[in-house]
């Protein structure tokens, strides 16, 4: 049985089970990352269509002006990161709900950059 008993009827996953389930989540996380990439590309195309009738300029397009190139990059980056975070979070919550094991870190890491500035 993968669960051990700790306390009054509380079921907790044992260390070996947690480690195995975190490892089993890795391929699921990769597939979710690919899915997030496809979704964010489609979402970016829709969002860019609201701002401009033309395709988003590539940074190497000679006749594209700086503000338009930088705006396209900013919207694309934001769209990708937000979509990826939402898909990753939903996948982790679902995995935790089904298997009782959180696939990532339990606590947020301390910022090394913030500590260097202090």
Note the topology:
Elements: E1 3-5, E2 11-13, H1 15-51, H2 66-99, H3 112-117
Antiparallel strand pairs: 1-2
Helix pairs in contact: 1-2
Could you characterize the architecture of this molecule?
With 118 residues, the chain is mostly helical. The chain has one domain (12-99). It has helices spanning 15-51, 66-99, 112-117; strands at residues 3-5, 11-13. A two-stranded antiparallel sheet has the order 1-2. The longest helix is centred in the first third of the chain and has 37 residues, at 15-51. The radius of gyration is 21 Å and the shape is elongated. The termini are far apart. Mean pLDDT is 86; it is low at 1-10.
Could you provide a short overview of the structure?
The protein is mainly alpha-helical and 118 residues long. It has one domain. 65% of the residues lie in helices and 5% in strands.
Q: What is the arithmetic mean of pLDDT?
A: 86
Q: Which structural class do the helices and strands define?
A: mainly alpha
| Physical arrangement of strands within the biggest beta sheet | 1-2
**Net shape:** elongated
Summed up, the domain count is 1
The helix fraction, in percent, is 55-70%
Largest sheet: 2 strands, antiparallel
User: Nearest-angstrom radius of gyration?
Assistant: 21 Å
Share of residues in strands? 5-15%
């Amino acid at each position: 049985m993968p669960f051990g008993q700790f306390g009054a009827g509380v079921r907790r996953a044992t260390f070996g089970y947690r480690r195995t389930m975190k490892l089993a989540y890795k391929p699921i996380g990769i597939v979710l990352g690919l899915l997030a990439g496809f979704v964010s590309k489609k979402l970016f195309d829709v969002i860019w269509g609201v701002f401009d009738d033309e395709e988003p300029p590539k940074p190497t397009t000679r006749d594209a002006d700086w503000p338009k190139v930088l705006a396209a990059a900013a919207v694309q980056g934001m769209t990708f990161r937000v979509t990826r975070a939402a898909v990753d979070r939903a996948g982790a919550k679902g995995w935790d709900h089904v298997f009782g094991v959180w696939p990532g870190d339990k606590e947020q890491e301390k910022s090394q950059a913030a500590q260097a500035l202090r």
